Amino acid sequence: MGGTLVFSKHVPFHRKDRIQMFFPLQTKRNHQEKRNAEMALSPLVYHRLVRPKWMTQKYIHNHINANFDLKNKRILDFGAGTGANCTLCTPEMYHGIEPDHGRVQLASRLYPGYKFSVLQDDVLPVEDRSIDFVMIIAVLHHIATQEITRYVAEFRRILSPEGRVLVIEPSLWEHTPICNWFMQWLDKGDYIRDERGYLELFEDQGFSCQVLKRFKKGLFYNEVYFYAVPEQEKGDH
Asked: Which segments of the protein form a coiled coil according to its record (predicted)?
């Protein structure tokens, strides 16, 4: 997978202290500074600049459609942003949640018929075993591991017995130090991990993971696309 790229055993870059040891210039922009810069963008500017249709189609929709048909499936879009990925789904079976009020308001205007809600706490506003797919696109690298752990427990709660979590995230690769540095310098997320770091977020809580593809987004971004399935516990049916 990954075209002509060669992948060997990953160095565990996902620990923040190690990231800054390898990439000390990253300390010039701390988490709060980057978060403030991101939120300074109006929701409409963010939608047009970060989620233009051609880029969303090429680097997100095409990859997901190659493996899954989300039509007529119950979808939770975790960190939906301005709603750019809702069109993969059937409107009445889609629920996008996002912590930023402005982005939720814009998504509701841009995609009438789709449901968007403001995420207010760690408990997802969804019933038990009611979701077929949780979709997470470029969200986890904005969230610290301790916080993600709470959400992963919620994903387990809301997923149907055959449910899956679909994830696409920027990723650190062992043999691309320039790309790794560039992503950490440019990206607003303070928690870009290597592939193993992302998988462990789920595996440590009883999920099985399968990497579907590793790919380049543009010249400098490395991306990993995988899914996670809760392992069945005793007593589950």
From this structure: none
Instruction: Note the pTM of the prediction, 2 decimals.
Output: 0.81
* In the predicted structure, residue 214 carries a pLDDT above the cut 50: yes
- As a whole number of angstroms, the distance between CA 104 and CA 119 comes to 10
CA dihedral 10→12→13→19, nearest 10 degrees, is -140
Question: Where exactly are the structural domains of the chain?
Answer: 16-230
- The token duo for 226 is 């995988």
Give the DSSP H or E segment for 83: none
Phi, psi of 23 (to 5 degrees): -130, 70
CATH of domain 16-230: 3.40.50.150
Joined together, the tokens standing for residue 195 give: 């592939």
Residues 6+ apart with CB under 8 A from 217: 59, 170, 223
CA dist 194 and 19 (Å) reads 10
Angstrom distances, CA of residue 160 to CA of 133, 156, 164: 8, 9, 8
CA dist list (Å): 197 to 150, 169, 202? 16, 11, 9
Angle of CA points 215, 217, 220, to nearest 5°: 105
CB 168 within 8 A of CB 137: yes
Place of tokens 């009445």: 92
Helix, strand, coil % (nearest 5) of the chain?
A: 40, 25, 35
